[in-house]
Amino acid sequence: MDRISSLPDGVIIHILSFLPLKRSAQTSVLSKRWRTLFAFSPTLDLLQYGNQMRRPRFLKFVERVLYVSGNSSMEKFTLRCIKGYRTKLWLRDVMNRGGLLDLDLRLGESNADLPCEIFTCKTLVELKLTEFCIKELPEDASLPALKKLFLKSVQFHSLPHVCAFAKLLSACPVLEELVFDDLRWDLWKWSRSLSSPSLRKLTIKHNEFGGVDMFNFGNITIDTPSVTHLDYEDLVPSSYQSINLNSLVEANLDLVVTVNHYWNSRLAQEGDNITSNPTGLFKGMRNVQIMNLLSQDSLEIFYLFRGAIPVFENLSHLSIITESTDCWSGLVYLLNHCPNLETLTIKGTLHYDRYDSVCRCVSGYSFLLSCPVKVVKITEYGGTADELIQLKHILEKLSRLELLEVSIRGTDDMKFQKAKDLLMLPRASSKCQIKVN
């Protein structure tokens, strides 16, 4: 007898739980004892792999797994397939066994019905729903243990006087992380209010802007006083009625304003009919400590709405993503509202004007004279003559700078010469050291 077969069933089942279900099921041919062990794994990932397992065969496989496992509880259940006439029964069966901690569903149809038991599960800690349209929740909706909620391509449609989305959040008293992926809340019918006192991490991602009409979208309220981490990639609405992000530590922003209520493929400019207004968001984020601007659009917003920038008293780290042709008008105004900024990271190349070298947008870098920054990091320094001129201005203006860290592109010989040029630049701060990578 082999050593594995001599192990107790519980140990073998635990070992099989580390394998994809399709692989663990193949062990059922080893002997009569192994025939059903795979089905008792505490983790069941039922995934329809394209043509590898055609739909009728896959449905029979699911039926078999759930039948042979009887009433045994499971900790994690994943089901990804095209909706079948028995999928709702399968889900109800799994939920009624008790003890479920993690549920991941994708049934391939937005109108697929979800059993009420999902929204009344007392043990569920993590819930991931993909491509569903949720029209209503049961009256007794309650997810008292849910800490993570992932919604991908999910829409909410409210009944009169009842907001299904608001009801879902209120049913999750200990929710810590909420993720929207491929969010299209311009298509929702909802109260336009996101409220959760327990939430600590919020992710909002809208992947495609083409064809999105924000004309009737209105304003948004976000009341999440405990959120410390915000990832926000979306079109900016016409206004933010109320924003409570008082505990915010880090914000990663990729925001785009609309022109005439639609996304404009080019960068919005003064003179355009800008129909977005981030003022409320700026004010709600005023306590942020780390801000990462992930696009030129996000940086330009601070120029377009420069009169609405609050003082970011707690902001100590700021990073921007930029290219040599991207103007820094937004950075000029933003830095003037960061009295305690310590680190500025420039992810990309330094900005310069191809004709005048120093672009008018930075006004000779005079805005850096009062800047408190101690560390500047540049991730893609090419070492051109124009870039060297920009660094010369930066070093001559930042009187409190202690470290300039530069990552140089090119061959080793080129890096050596560019580093030598850098080290020869005059510096306003006697404490400033230059580190070359």
Number of continuous helical runs: 10
Please state the structural category: alpha/beta
Residue fraction in strands: 15-25%
Query: Sheet with the most strands?
Result: 15 strands, parallel
**Mean pLDDT figure:** 85
* Total strand segments: 22
- Taking Cα atoms only, what radius of gyration do you get, to the nearest Å? 27 Å
Shape: globular
Question: What are the low-pLDDT stretches, counting only 5+ consecutive residues below 50?
Answer: none
Distance between the termini: 59 Å
Strand order of the largest sheet: 1-2-3-4-6-8-10-12-14-17-18-19-20-21-22
Helix content: 10-25%
A few lines on this structure:
It contains 10 helices and 22 strands. It has helices at residues 9-16, 21-25, 55-68, 87-97, 164-170, 279-284, 296-304, 329-335, 385-397, 412-423, and strands at residues 43-47, 76-80, 102-106, 126-130, 133-134, 148-152, 155-156, 177-181, 193-195, 201-205, 219-223, 229-235, 239-244, 250-256, 258-259, 262-263, 290-293, 317-322, 343-348, 375-381, 403-408, 433-436. Strands 1-2-3-4-6-8-10-12-14-17-18-19-20-21-22 form a 15-stranded parallel beta sheet. Strands 9-11-13 form a 3-stranded parallel beta sheet. It has a two-stranded parallel sheet with strand order 5-7.
